[in-house]
């Protein structure tokens, strides 16, 4: 029931307004690898699920240690590599657009990882692996809709 409502109200409206010659496409809106349609749909689903599930119970919030740091690093490395392929493969050709997408993806992920680690040092007096991974994922998510833009070094901001 929930997934059909999400598909009907969130994904369908976004997809048909942008992809396939929708009205947003005619206004010049660009959605490189589905950043608008997919992120808006999944964000709406996540917000709705978090609202209905509610906050964690108090005992879960007090102590929540990382489970396996080595697997976190391995998984985040695979995620970064796959995300670069996802953004770079969107033009369906090996051209300057795909090269720019891979470059922008890597620059943004690395910059976000370093900034998040630096903020961990400032606010918590020590860097953390989970913070670095969170920064990397934040950078990957942020660059996805504009990965093909020819901004070069400015894209990491």
UniProtKB/TrEMBL annotation:
Membrane topology per record: Multi-pass membrane protein
Keyword Membrane found: yes
InterPro entries from the UniProt entry: Ammonium/urea_transptr, Ammonium_transpt, NH4_transpt_AmtB-like_dom
GO molecular function, one term: ammonium channel activity
The keyword Transport belongs to this UniProt entry's keyword annotation: yes
Localization: Membrane
UniProt cross-references to SUPFAM superfamilies, sorted A to Z: Ammonium transporter
Ammonium transporter AmtB-like domain sequence ranges: 9-148
GO cellular component labels: plasma membrane
Annotated transmembrane regions: 9-30, 36-54, 66-86, 98-119
Alphabetically ordered keywords of this record: Ammonia transport, Membrane, Transmembrane, Transmembrane helix, Transport
UniProt family annotation: Belongs to the ammonia transporter channel (TC 1.A.11.2) family.
Name of the protein: Ammonium transporter AmtB-like domain-containing protein
UniProt source species: Rubus argutus
């Amino acid at each position: 029931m929930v997934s059909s409502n999400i598909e009907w109200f969130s994904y369908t409206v976004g997809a048909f307004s942008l992809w396939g010659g929708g009205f947003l496409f005619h206004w010049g809106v660009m959605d490189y690898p589905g950043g608008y349609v997919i992120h808006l749909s999944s964000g709406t689903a996540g917000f709705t699920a978090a609202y209905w599930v509610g906050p964690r119970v108090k005992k879960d919030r007090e102590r929540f240690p990382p489970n396996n740091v080595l697997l976190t690093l391995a998984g985040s490395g695979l995620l970064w590599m796959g995300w670069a392929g996802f953004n770079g493969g969107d033009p369906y050709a090996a051209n300057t657009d795909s090269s720019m997408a891979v470059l922008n993806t890597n620059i943004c992920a690395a910059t976000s990882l370093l900034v998040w680690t630096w903020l961990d040092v400032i606010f918590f007096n020590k860097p953390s692996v989970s913070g670095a991974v969170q920064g990397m994922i934040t950078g990957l998510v942020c660059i996805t809709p504009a990965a093909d833009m020819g901004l070069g070094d400015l894209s990491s901001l």
